[in-house]
Every structure is written in structure tokens, then in C-alpha cells.
Amino acid sequence: MTVSELKSAFQSAYGKPAEAVYFSPGRVNLIGEHTDYNGGSVFPCALSFGAYLLLAKNDKNEVSFKSLNQPEVLSLPFDRLTQRLEKSWVNYPLGVFAQFIKRGVSIKQGYDILIWGDVPNGAGLSSSAALEVVTAYALNDQLGSGFNRSELARIGQKAEHEFALVNCGIMDQFASANGKKDHAIHLNCDTLDFELVPVKLEGVKILISNTHSPHKLDSGAYNERVAQCKKAVEQLNKVRPLKFLAELTEEEFRKIESAITDPVAHKRARHVVGEVQRTKDAVKALKAGNLKKFGELMNASHVSLRDDYEVTGPELDAMAEEAWKIDGVIGSRMTGGGFGGCTVSLVKDEAIDNFIKQVGEAYERRIGIKPEFYVAEIGDGASKLA
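Below the sequence we write its predicted C-alpha cells.
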């Protein structure tokens, strides 16, 4: 939908014009998966699609939430803006309101809010983070609260923890808040130090393949991985003090890995330590223009996520395996939390049509689901559009 179409939808929904329009993007992570909550580095970029939020003030001492993507409509008085709802999409923006209130920002003005997103739901491209960050950016602008983009990302992350009940890392919200067109973000998730790295892909495109097997982070599998990594840290602490798995180099890990007596926690830790190194190596390779090396590291990342972290599943594995067979594919891996969702591939321009045809047909034969493909454009972070 265009901004003018969204404004018309707002007028229809609320019988008055929108006073402001905001946007925040989804993201795709090129490499560095399940490292963010382990204190490691990640390498995401913002996409050109995301979440839009339109609002106008009201005089009702309440906030009304409507979405063009969801049937549920809710109006909540000010004294309920800190209370989580049971099974409602409104928890994503509501959690952000609650975080502002926790930080001492008082909500004295009512708003009518309309939301629309064009991030495919359940694709693992951060529709939830886009919604959280666009709400935070809009509130920050409306209330003049003065939070910087990194703090808005933290607000979105805490909203996800406390209202969506997913113990996510900071990557998704950070990329949505801080993205820059034609750049990826090399982010240290512990310190939030980051570098914007130009993505120069001469004759190569980023191709996202949607398995149409929706990932379900709140199913408990994601939080289970977080707990397993914590267990690994606890056991390693008996031989070496550390806060995060990402503090260890691969060599250091090999020396003390026997301290992890739980075999599952050991596999999870091995993935994290290796993935942190792969991410650093991949950023170096991109800066040096060595796309071949970058692609090899992407492939290795998928294998580790499949074998050690066990978050891929038959759909993502089929998509990656079929991609690896295509001439002109530089690298391919699952992206996002896993358990369904999308793969991200670097594909030479001349191979894209063949990729979509061959991989699409092979995936549908193997899995019985018709996939979808998007050539990604790297966009900017959160902004006010009107």
C-alpha cells in the first residue's frame, strides 16, 4: 500500500485524517545467527519493507489500536497500558507503551493508531521488531522523550521479552532502528558498538526464499536454546569466569569445552563460538570484496545451525540444499530464529531466474509447499514519512 492509500484507510477507520505516518523496516541477517543473546556479533541489514504506523490524537484518555493485517481492534485506557494481554497482536505495540511508562514518560494524550505491515508474517524477517520499533519511534517523536535509536531498539527488545514472552537478543530491533540503505550493520550485541559496512555486490543480489513454513519463536524452542546456552556458560564458569559464550575464541573453547557435561548444551555452545568467528571472518571478506569466502561462511553457518543448534528443520534444509546445487549461488543459509521462515542467498544476477524456477520446483516436490522469493533491497531504518 502507498502512504496515500494508508491515509485513506486511516480516514475510513477513524473518520478523521492521520496527523503523522511512521515506518520501520524488517531485517535480514546475512550471517551471525543465535549469537546476539550470547553477547556475540551479528551482520544484519534493514529491508525496504516493514511496518507502518499512522496516528492522530484523540480526547478520550485512551489509545486505540487497529491493524489492516489483523481483525482484532482494541481501545485501552491509560491505566491499562502497562498490562499484558492474553494472545493479542496488540502486545507488540502495547509493550512499547509500557516501556516508555517504565522509563518515567507519562502518557497524558490519547491516540488513535492504525498499523499495516508488508513483512510476510512468520517469515523470520522481523515483522515483530519492525512493529515494536515503529511504535517506539512514533512515541518518541510525539512525546519528545529524546531517546536515541539504540535506546529505542532496547525498548523494543524489552517489549518483546515482557509482552510477547520471547527472550530475543537485540539484533532485530537494532537493525530496524539503525539500518542504512545499501549497508549492513556489524553489531557487537554486548556493547552495542556497531559499524555500518557498505554492501557492494557487483552483479550479485541478495535473494530471500520464504519456505512458507512459519517460524514460531514463542513455541518455546527459542527460549529453550537461550536456557541451554546459559547452562553452558554456568558449567564453563567452573573453569573460567565468563558472562557470554561469545567471549571465547574457538581455540579457548577447545581447551575448556570438556567442562560442559550436558551434551546438548555443548553442541549449542560449539555453534555460538564458531558462528561468532564466522561472522567476523565474513565481514572481513565482504570488506575485501571476497564474496566467494563470504558465501562459504554462509554455507558453514547453515550446517552448524542444522547440526549443532538444531533450529533448521526439513523446510529450511531443503531450501538451502537445493540452492547449493545451482550454478551462480555464492552462498545460502537459513536466516532468523529458525524453525521455519526464510533462507538468504547471494546469487549472481544471471542465475536468479533459474534459481527461482529450479529451487522453487525442487522445494515444492520435497516439501509440498509452494515457496516465495524476494530480491532484497537494503533500506533505511525507522523514519517519519509524513
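The first strand starts at residue 20 and ends at 29.
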